[in-house]
Amino acid sequence: MAHAHSVKRYKGLMDWITTVDHKKIAVLYLIAGGLFFGIGGIEAILIRIQLMKPMNDFVSAQVFNELITMHGTTMIFLGVMPIIFAIMNAVVPLQIGARDVAFPFVNALGFWTFLFGGLLLNLSWIMGGAPDAGWTAYTPLSGSQYSETHGVDFYTIGLQIAGLGTLIGGINFLATIITMRAPGMSYMRMPMFTWTTFITSAIILFAFPAITVGLVLLTFDRILDANFFNVAGGGNPVLWQHIFWIFGHPEVYILILPAFGIISEVIPTFSRKRLFGYSSMVFATILIAFLGFMVWAHHMFTTGLGNVANALFSISTMLIAVPTGIKIFNWLFTMWGGQIRFTAANLFAVGFVPTFVMGGVTGVMLASAPADFQFHDTYFVVAHFHYVIVGGLVLGLFAGLHYWWPKMFGRILSESLGKWTFWTFMIGFQLTFFVQHFLGLMGMQRRIVTYLPNQDFDLLNLVSSIGAFLMGVGVIIFLVNIVITTKKPIDAPNDPWEDGRTLEWTIPSPPPEYNFKQTPLVRGIDAYWKEKMAGNKEMTPAEPVGSIHMPSATPLPFVMSVGIFIAGLGLMFSKDKFELEFMNLIFNNYIVLIIGLLITFGAMALRSLYDDHGWHIEPEDQDEKGART
Prior knowledge:
This protein is an all-alpha fold. It has one domain (about 10-555, about 610-620): Cytochrome c oxidase-like, subunit I domain (Cytochrome C Oxidase, Chain A), CATH 1.20.210. The chain has 20 helices and two strands. Helix 4 runs antiparallel to helix 5 (about 150-180), helix 4 runs parallel beside helix 17 (about 555-570) and helix 11 runs parallel beside helix 14.
């Protein structure tokens, strides 16, 4: 082949900046997500220090507002989302027997736009004040009248850029799963994690345009003096709530469905049993996604929508409990009679089940409109939300990371440290959020900077803060585990758990650059397990050994994202008055904005005009494994 050895190899940092390999992009997502997760965690600790005792003045009211806004925004959009995408990137192509994702270039672009959006948002801390209108950015609080700094501008523009990355990532996964499954891998033979990725990507496709429109309108209100949400100009602030929550509630399922998928992989592996009720799991997941778009106004029971709207949204919210309940019972029945091994991954998976049920039960309580009038904007809602997202999603992510770490990096995480992570994090979590239900029922409002003594809030807040520190210790133990494991040799076998059921366990750990030397032939659900039961050591190939086409590394996704980042800053400061006349010249005349857009569109033009055919790995080079170190 003409391109066999003409591949341009980069070294060191350039290798990571130019990569289009989904496995390396998974590592980039993991590092970026870990960074933002850490920032969000520090913000949470600072919030809990402030609330440890009554009348505390650890931070000012303004800084507290910035902390609660940035904690929620960072954790949801920049902390857990990229870790979900890291696991999806690392696992989904392997589970469906694909050599890559459908659009490797777009995959890289999705990561870099997400990263630069997240960096732009966090730059607000050092460039004049972070957003301070709550993570939901309700108007008119987020309007220029009440939020005069650039904080909310960083929020609107940063999230638009980061959201673009998430949206194109979702489209890429849809295309990959629809078009690149191995022969015999019908939809009803796909592993549950692939199914949840598929459905999550579909939700992203429909939900993210809504928030994008909302953020664009809010940007217009703030920077271009439009009146979409300004009552004095004929706008409607409740319109923002509708736009935000028609995205915001599906976003909860964008976060939690991948965790469901992880649990559905981990529990069968460590129970040595097939997942109970596979087809009912698939249809329950689809139903959850469908109903997830029909419940947004349950966040708005107190806005005066009227009895009919409240009743309809109340009923549709309670309906979601049905498919979720199906999943819970299926996990329990999978474990029933199984040969359960309590590895670190399985501890997180089993701990997930009762904790998530607790979040679901309080969710049904909040779904009752009359009850919600009492619970609304109290710590009861905070407790409910964190039981779903931390007790559900974060425990699921820990399970997934412990489970697939050897496949991603070729090294098995320490089991003893993994169990220490579980117990410290789990006990800390329950201490932090269980008591907040009672704080809410006793009348403690959320988003308040402090509280008066002798209201019975003191002890419970102290317990909650101690629990938060313990969760922090759990995360630190996990990081220590990673550092220690990284120093070990790369010696994980193909199937380190010995009971792997799906295709990713059939190839070396970590996988070679091309994933599969020969595309496997799938003969049933749990394809690898089926071959094991038939006495086969490996999968039957669906093709002869041949030349494997690979996409070329390119810096263009990185350059495009830098351009969007510069354009965002240019738009944000276009109305500011600077001391330096040169700064006024380049910002007030939109020169910075234009330069940023030129960089992005220039990179797009290069991509369109230069036809890169990629390169090939010949059969004689394939036995070298090509594994990453």
